[in-house]
Design a protein that fits this description.
With 560 residues, this protein is of the alpha+beta class. 51% of the residues lie in helices and 21% in strands. A hairpin with a 2-residue loop joins strand 13 and strand 14. It binds adenosine-5'-diphosphate.
Amino acid sequence: MRLRWTLALAFVALSMVQIAVVVPLALRNLNALLVSQQEARVDQLMITVEAEAQRLQGDVRRAMDELAASQALEDVARDAAKVPAPAHVTTAATSLMTPRGLDVLALVDDTGRTLSSGHLPARLGDPDDPLFAVTRRPAKAVVATRVELSSATGLISAPAIVTARAIDYGERRVWAIGGVLLTEARAKDLSRLTGARVSIKSAGEPAGAVDGATLATAGDAPPPIITRALPVGDVASIQLSFSQADLVATRSEVLRAFLGFAGVGLLLSIILGFAVSRRITSPVEALTDAAQKIAGGTPGVKVESGSASGELKSLIDTFNRMTDDLKNATDKLVASERIAAWQEVARRLAHEIKNPLTPIRMSLETLLAASQRGPLDDRFKGLFAESARAVLEEVDRLKRIVDEFSQFARLPRPELAQHDLADVVQPVMALYTSHDGITFNVALERGGLVSIDRDQVTQVLVNLIKNAEEAMSGKTGAIHVRIKPATEVILEVEDEGPGIPENLKARLFEPYVTTKPQGTGLGLAIAQRIMQEHGGRLEVADGAKGGALFRVSLPRVSPR
Ligand code: ADP
């Protein structure tokens, strides 16, 4: 992976790790805070509820104190002693109860017999044991008890808070036991006060009844809820359900906000990561590119230090100095190599020129000697014709050597243009037809785009085919010409001749290496130089049928 991506990904991963650690931690803390706040609020409301219960008890106590001190009750107590009791005594409880805001009021004699009942007039004359039990509790205590009432479904037992007061009239004692019922109206009051759903549930029901039955409910609490209960003596409990829906909504809102922030943070870190990694890696990439170019043979490539600073800048400066040094060294090396190469060429050229000079000199010396011997007779004429032919032949050879040498020495710079190599080779191969037992087997794959001097590459091809034909003279067989476009575009010329002599292989491309009587040994040297000037290669290998295989490799280019 490229350094830039690796660095950018590292930045992103780092910020993701941070987000992964920070977000859940922050959310957990926030959640704990919200929950504890909610619980504190609920605790506060429960205190309010308890205060309300106290207030209700206070109301009951005050109402009963006021009743106990009233003239009206004293009158009733007095009349209750009469036998038979006057009729108004039996209804007295109702008229005493209602104006004092009480739901329950019973007047009971000392034996527990009901003299008058406001909440259950039918009780008259009967004992009301649970209610009478209140009289044996500590004086004036407000207690929770179960009170029997008549309802549409018959006799029911409802929780109430009551208190008892004794009214003594002479010898007789009358009890007034009164209080309030825990009704739906009370549940509604509490619900209004707390915002919770309030249920009044019975507890410690007498045998047969359902313990925990809901007696009254008010308010609404969408889930999820926290529930708290407040016992009312041992007869009922007030259950308050506080909705947590707000908390959940707040929590998910915070979560959304957090995720939003995390997303924005991540985006920023991606952008920042790319920006920073670009800043760090672009000089490194420039260095890599430059190093690759130098390795590929382009000398003296420089890197702009641009925005780089610190170590990167000094690295670039050092690199540039090194490429300068390298270029200078390479230039010197190339120059001295070139001199050495030309010295070698000159040496061989001199040798080649010397070869024809010897027969020329010998011919002329023979002629000179013959002419000095006597008159120019017929024998001399014959000798002259023979020598002149030999001299002309050698002069021709000299001319050929000089012509090819000047071509080798003044090889023009290639004029490059883009071609599909098949389009260059095809028209050349069209000129070749089978002859003297030699056939041509041409397989040109298209699509190998190259940047070449068409004439020079044609010259290379013609040269290779000429060599192949010469190697195969007197034999039958095929010359194979192929194009294979790959990462490089390959052109192969393979023959079925005797192949390259082993002792020649190493020197094959050197100038003046030839095995042919009329050869100059410059053909392959020129071909290889042309390929080098094209940034390509010319190599030799063994053909499949023992012949020679010359392989031209050219850099493949993409269309402009
Ligand atoms: P020239 O053809 O003038 O000799 P070249 O440089 O073209 O010069 O070839 C150099 C030598 O390489 C040839 O003389 C020959 O010995 C050898 N050679 C070239 N091509 C082939 C081939 N296809 N098969 C065998 N030998 C070859």
